[in-house]
C-alpha cells in the first residue's frame, strides 16, 4: 500500500550568531528528521518584525518538504526539537534567535489546534515569507484564500525591504586599520 506524499512549505529564519550557518544546520536538521528537502529558496535578508529591542537583521528562506506518514503536529514537534538543538529556548518570545522554523503550508490541510495553525496565520502579512515562497512555489494555492502565492505576494500590505542576501557583501569595515589587519592575517 502506497502512502500519499504531502508537500509542505517551511520558513527558516535566523538573526543570532552565524545566521547563514544556522540556516544550513536547520536544513540539515530537517533532513535528519526524515524530511525530504526537495527545494530551497535563495536566502533573503530582512529587518526584524515587531520587536522591542535592537536586533540584527534576519536571514530568511523557505524549504519545500516532501513527506508521508506524518501529521502536521508531528512535523512541528520535530521542528521544535531542531530549534532547541540549535540553541533556541524561547519559541514564543520576539527575541533574537539562532533559528526559527514555521510550517507555512501542509498540503491542502486547514487545521487549528492549541499547538499549531495551518496555513500559518500570518504568512500573508509577511513579505519575508511570501518572497522566498513565491520564488519556489508561485502557483501553489493557499487552501483558505484560494489565491496563489504570487498573487498573495503582489497583494500583501507588508512593504518591508526583502532583498536577496549576498554573503560576499556581509563584512563591511569602516576602520582602515582593521582592513589592513585582516588582509595581512
CATH superfamily name?
7,8-Dihydro-6-hydroxymethylpterin-pyrophosphokinase HPPK
Number of helices: 5
> Approximately how much helix is present in the residues?
25-40%
Class, according to the CATH hierarchy?
Alpha Beta
CATH-assigned fold name: Alpha-Beta Plaits
CATH architecture: 2-Layer Sandwich
Please report the distance between the alpha carbons of the first and last residues. Answer: 61 Å
Task: Report the principal-axis shape.
Answer: globular
Structural class: alpha+beta
Largest sheet: 6 strands, antiparallel
The SSE string, one letter per element, is: EHEEEHEEEHHEH
What's the β-strand tally? Answer: 8
Rg over CA atoms: 18 Å
Low-confidence stretches are 173-182
Mean pLDDT: 88
Overall number of domains: 1
Oligomer: single chain
Which percent band covers the strand fraction? 15-25%
Provide a brief overview of the structure:
The protein has five helices and eight strands, in the order βαβββαβββααβα. The chain has 185 residues and is of the alpha+beta class. The protein has a single domain (6-184), classed as 2-Layer Sandwich (Alpha-Beta Plaits), CATH 3.30.70.
Please describe what this structure looks like.
Strands 1, 2, 3, 4, 5 and 8 form a 6-stranded antiparallel beta sheet that branches. With 185 residues, the chain is an alpha+beta fold. The longest helix is centred in the first third of the chain and has 14 residues, at 19-32. It has helices spanning 19-32, 72-85, 127-136, 149-155, 176-184, and strands spanning 6-14, 36-40, 44-46, 58-67, 100-106, 111-112, 117-118, 162-164. Helix 3 (127-136) packs antiparallel against helix 4 (149-155). It has 5 helices and 8 strands; from the N terminus they run βαβββαβββααβα.
Amino acid at each position: 500500500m502506497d502512502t500519499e506524499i504531502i508537500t509542505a512549505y517551511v520558513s527558516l529564519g535566523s538573526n543570532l550568531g552565524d545566521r547563514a550557518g544556522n540556516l544550513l544546520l536547520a536544513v540539515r536538521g530537517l533532513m535528519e528528521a526524515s524530511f525530504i528537502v526537495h527545494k530551497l529558496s535563495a536566502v533573503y535578508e530582512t529587518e526584524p518584525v515587531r520587536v522591542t529591542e535592537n536586533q540584527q537583521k534576519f536571514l530568511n528562506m523557505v524549504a519545500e518538504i516532501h513527506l508521508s506518514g506524518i501529521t502536521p503536529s508531528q512535523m512541528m514537534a520535530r521542528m521544535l526539537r531542531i530549534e532547541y538543538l540549535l540553541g533556541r529556548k524561547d519559541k514564543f518570545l520576539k527575541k533574537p534567535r539562532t533559528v526559527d522554523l514555521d510550517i507555512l503550508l501542509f498540503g491542502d490541510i486547514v487545521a487549528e489546534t492549541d499547538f499549531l495553525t495551518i496555513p500559518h496565520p500570518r504568512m500573508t502579512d509577511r513579505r519575508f515569507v511570501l518572497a522566498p515562497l513565491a520564488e519556489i512555489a508561485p502557483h501553489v494555492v493557499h487552501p483558505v484564500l484560494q489565491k496563489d502565492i504570487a498573487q498573495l505576494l503582489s497583494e500583501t500590505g507588508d512593504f518591508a525591504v526583502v532583498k536577496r542576501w549576498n554573503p560576499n557583501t556581509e563584512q563591511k569595515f569602516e576602520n582602515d586599520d582593521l582592513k589592513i589587519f585582516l588582509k595581512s592575517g
